[in-house]
């Protein structure tokens, strides 16, 4: 409960600012669109498109920064879209202002406050999370051999499989031939002994040579 209250106190003012400033900027854009021929629902659609384009571009810009996407060119596409949306929003706000310095400043305040609130929310949402500690890499363990089978390894000299493993493979091959009436295959030997493809191939070659 205390954590929820702290969270509301932390983000509440920013959310309220975003809603109020967005409503003011939205109204200016809607009125400007209505005065220039976009009547009815179209004036609302124009205002929604411009404001949501700014929000979408701001989120995409922070997403690019978070994943480390490298931009191609002097300016990224989200920044270009955000700049265009801001320019349209400010132009609509200034069009509704009294042609004085203070008229322009006060008319541009909702658009500026809306962009500041959105940027603050995006900054908090894209905060870097602490990475989990790296786990020490462990060497892969060999596949478990069947009960009674010797460890799958080669001779220290590197000139072939270990004699004990070769003897066990010979016994497995003989049992397979007696049961199925045909020589054991590479895949069957590898699956039965639980060894790698390379070691199974070496064993099968040694059996054929013997």
TrEMBL record:
InterPro entries, alphabetized: DUF2637
Top-rank taxon: Bacteria
The keyword Membrane is annotated on this UniProt entry: yes
Biased composition (Low complexity): 126-155
Sequence segments annotated as region (Disordered): 126-157
Keyword Transmembrane part of the UniProt annotation: yes
Membrane-spanning residues: 12-29, 41-58, 79-95, 101-121
UniProt entry keywords in alphabetical sequence: Membrane, Transmembrane, Transmembrane helix
UniProt protein name: DUF2637 domain-containing protein
UniProt organism field: Thermostaphylospora chromogena
């Amino acid at each position: 409960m205390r954590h929820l209250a702290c969270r509301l106190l932390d983000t509440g003012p920013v959310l309220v600012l975003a809603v109020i400033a967005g409503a003011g900027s939205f109204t200016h854009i809607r009125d400007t669109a209505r005065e220039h021929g976009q009547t009815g629902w179209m004036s609302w659609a124009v205002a929604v498109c411009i404001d949501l384009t700014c929000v979408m571009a701001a989120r995409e810009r922070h997403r690019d920064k978070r994943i480390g996407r490298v931009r191609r060119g002097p300016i990224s596409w989200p920044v270009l879209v955000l700049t265009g949306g801001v320019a349209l929003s400010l132009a609509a706000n200034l069009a509704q202002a009294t042609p004085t310095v203070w008229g322009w400043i006060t008319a541009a305040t909702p658009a500026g406050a809306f962009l500041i609130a959105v940027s603050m929310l995006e900054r908090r949402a894209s905060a870097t999370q602490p990475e989990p500690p790296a786990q020490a890499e462990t060497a892969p363990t060999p596949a478990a051999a069947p009960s009674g089978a010797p460890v799958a390894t080669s001779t220290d000299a590197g000139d072939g499989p270990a004699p004990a493993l070769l003897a066990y493979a010979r016994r497995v091959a003989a049992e397979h031939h007696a049961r199925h009436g045909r020589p054991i295959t590479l895949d069957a030997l590898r699956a039965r002994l639980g060894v790698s493809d390379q070691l199974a191939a070496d064993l099968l070659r040694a059996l054929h040579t013997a």
